[in-house]
Amino acid sequence: MNPATLKLRAVHHVAIIASDYARSKHFYVELLGLKVLAENYRAARDSWKLDLALPDGTQLELFSFPQPPVRPSRPEACGLRHLCFAVADVEEAKLALEAQGVAVEPVRVDEYTGKAFTFFADPDGLPLELYQA
User: Is 18 exposed, middle or buried (0-12, 13-18, 19+ CB in 10 A)?
Assistant: First the structure.
């Protein structure tokens, strides 16, 4: 099959499994400001599914499952490395997160693009990046 026939258009969503659903819901909704689209409890799986959206329409699915395994992060493991959010002002966003008690790494500059970026982590240690749009 020719990959051009797929005609991929965008990333629709990213799925995240939380160890503490309430804590992660607070983090993504209250601290990061994602919009809640839907929230459903799936009794057969003893699992919550929270559909969230960014202003551009990109969605995050936040799941809970009983006793999910810990995600290897350091040293870095194979697979999805991090989730990156575009922001107008990295320093401003960093200060806003720090004001909410979120630890954020120092702002750095991408040596290839000249754009500012920084990293922080969600409640389960998932690496999140802010990148100058």
Answer: buried
